[in-house]
Amino acid sequence: MGKTMKYNFKYCLHIIVINYLAVTALLIWQVHLGFKKTAFKNQTVLKKTMRYTHIVHAAKIHRYPVVKQWPIPSKKTMRYPHIVSAPKIYRHPVFEEWSTPSKVIRRCFGNFVGYFNAFSLLNNVTIDRTLATGYNRGGESKSSAVKQKPRDEFHHYTKGFFKIPCYRNEVPDYNFNGGNTNVQTYWLRAMDAMHDNRKMYNIHRNISRLTIALTRYEYANPYWAIMDVYNVFLMMNFFNSTPDITNVLLLDSHPRGHIDSVWEVVFSSVLTLRKLPNQTYFQKLVWTIHRDTAPMLQKHKTPLPLQAEFCTTVLDKYGIVSNVGRYRKHKCRNAELSVLFIWRRDYLAHVRNPSGKVKRKIRNEDELLNITKKSYPAYSVTGVQLDLLDLSKQLELIASTDILVGMHGAGFSQMIFQHPGSGVIELYPSGHGYNWHFYYLAQRSQLYHMKWRNKDWNLEDRVNFYTYIPPTVIVSMIKDMTNMICSNKSMVPFESKDQWFDERQRRNTQNNLSRNRKVKYRNTK
Q1: Strand partners, 170
Q2: Longest Cα pair distance anywhere in the chain, in angstroms?
Q3: Which of 66, 68, 242, 444 has the fewest CB atoms within 10 Å distance of its CB?
Q4: φ, ψ for residue 31, nearest 5 deg
């Protein structure tokens, strides 16, 4: 009896152990299958969302998500919390194009990341200013730098000026747009690899904030100066930073220009080699976008990316509030628009033009002001020479202007700060070809643009570069511009180039259909 019970107990225990092992193996197999399905599903989601997100494994310092909107986890992701879908974030179409996975190249363990062959991000980089010439110059007044040569306004670097940790101490190989004309190509030649241990180097300063480096070429020209500020603003937003925590590094030794104050007002701090110690360590250094790839120079009519945010940021930093758009209907109803004439007069614009003689000037300035005030008594008509005013006063005038009138010149670059729906009238002297820069800038800033060129050589003063503008021309153009501004037609903004092309294709298709209907109607007759 005892042997039978002992045998049955052993048999039952054996059966229980076998069943337990079988169930455990089955559970493990099911978990493995579920893990594979979940991993495959999330991998597919990541692949689909990679072109809409900007997640770079090498550059861990990025804070790309503008709006962190994580999806609700499913049962499988709750069972496996380490598998999470990518965040759904919004990025501007231009930023999506720049962050295309095939156009993002990583070198040196992610310490060098190139984007769209236009700009790059350097992590853990050291700048040795002793390997640059002329680092103790820059920021002088124009009068003290009249005899300065062009080559003295730029730094010349030797290899090792930029030091970056890289594999086997090899410099990253990368091709920028523009080739040798791109300053980033010159910077890349001045780069040298270093050991990743910073204790081996005598670092005098450590900068952890995002720093954007650029070299200004046309510092005295407002058009190119505003473009440089706008490009830095785009870089700041691309890497999800703000002006209060972003530094600007100016790698040039130009004299102080009229637009230089905008750097100090808008951004956290402005650095130059003159202000840096011999060895400076940057955790995040951006080589800004090249001029040839800059959105401001693209010849199409899509709105400038983040143009409203750029204008709002600059105007807020200067404490300027513009109510042009809010009261435009009231001003149109009562015919109370504001007209601003910008005059071009002789002044010292550049150190290599000591005479200060300026071309494309208007001879009959007072006559144009008087005839405009007489023809439009309710309008606010003023005329100013912008270079004599402080930059804050210039921006205040431009932001409150409905119609901007003047001869073709770099001062028109400030039209970007006008309220959308405003107007620009650009005048040209005889023999001067039309310039496309301000036409496309007006179109992309949602502004109406009109142009006029003198065809009577008798109205030109070729010695002093003056042009007589017929008053009837100005009165007529202001009338036409008023009708455009106060019409019910609104300038429809497009979010991307593809949307603009789709709208144009839709209109062409609609026109073709209407044309075919007319042909059929004629044939039926």
Answers
A1: none
A2: 135
A3: 68
A4: -60, -40
Token output for 93 = 């179409």
Distance separating alpha carbons of residues 255 and 451, to the nearest angstrom: 34
Q: Are strands 162-165 and 119-128 parallel, antiparallel or unpaired?
A: antiparallel
Cβ-contact 411, 222 below 8 angstroms? yes
Q: Which residues pair with 270 in a beta bridge?
A: 248
Residues 362 and 469 sit within 8 Å (Cβ to Cβ): yes
Tell me the helix, strand and coil percentages in the chain, rounded to 5.
45, 15, 40
Closest CA to 113 of 180, 48, 178, 64: 64
Distance CA 126, CA 470 (A): 60
463 pLDDT more than 60 = yes
**How many whole angstroms separate alpha carbon 428 and alpha carbon 407?**
6
Measured between alpha carbons, how far is 133 from 197 in angstroms, rounded to an integer? 27
What are the CA-CA distances from residue 307 to residues 213, 238, 274, 295, 494 (Å)?
A: 21, 14, 32, 11, 12
Q: What is the DSSP letter of 71?
A: P
Per-residue pLDDT tens digits for 347-391: 777 766 777 788 999 999 999 999 999 999 999 999 999 989 999
Per-residue pLDDT band for 91 (boundaries 50, 70, 90) equals confident
Averaged pLDDT for residues 34-51: 43
What whole-number distance in Å separates Cα of residue 214 and Cα of residue 225?
12
- Taking alpha carbons only, the member of 235, 237, 214 closest to residue 225 is 214
Q: Of 124, 99, 94, 128, give the one whose Cα is nearest residue 112.
A: 124
Q: What are the tens digits of pLDDT across the range 483-511? A: 999 985 555 444 444 554 455 556 566 66
Q: Is 56 helix (H, G, I), strand (E, B) or coil?
A: coil
Beta strands in 326-465 (DSSP E): 338-342, 361-362, 380-384, 403-407, 423-428, 448-453, 460-461
* Pairwise CA distance, residues 517 & 308, whole Å: 42
CA 258 to chain centre: 21
Say how many C-beta atoms besides its own lie within 10 A of residue 496's C-beta: 16
Q: What is the DSSP string of 368-384?
A: HHHHHHHH-TTSEEEEE
Whether the pTM exceeds 0.85: the reply is: no
Q: Cα–Cα distance between 223 and 237 in angstroms, integer? A: 21
User: Bridge partners of 119?
Assistant: 115
Contact 205, 280 (CB under 8 A): yes
Helices (H) and strands (E) in the chain, counts: 13, 19
| Residue 336, both tokens | 């109370």
Which amino acid does the sequence have at 35?
A: F
Segment of 11-20, 196-205, 333-342 carrying the highest mean pLDDT: 333-342
